[in-house]
Amino acid sequence: RYLEDILMKDELDEWALSHPDRFRVRYVLSSPPDSWQGGVGWVDVADVKAGLPAPGDSTLIMVCGTDGFLDTVSGPTVRGPPPAGKQQGPKL
Q1: In sequence order, which residues have a C-beta less than 8 Å from that of residue 26 and are 6 or more positions away?
Q2: Which residues of the chain are modeled with pLDDT < 50?
Q3: What does pTM read for this prediction?
Q4: Considering Cα of 20, then 4, then 65, then 50, what sign does the dihedral take?
């Protein structure tokens, strides 16, 4: 949502600069600062199709977010068993 919500942004940006042929990153914020040059709004299926490579044996795409976001960009998923002391398990 906000620029400061992006985890490991410096590291991700460095990887993208160091390995442009193997790693790309695109940020989308729903509440960006005035100077923001990245994506704005909510990610939808059209963004996924336009911004990500097609599935393949040498392609790994990782996403994180709320259950609703994961359902939008990854399709329906299931949860694994919850770890000790947790109410929900990870999405698989």
Answers
A1: 38, 39, 51
A2: none
A3: 0.66
A4: negative
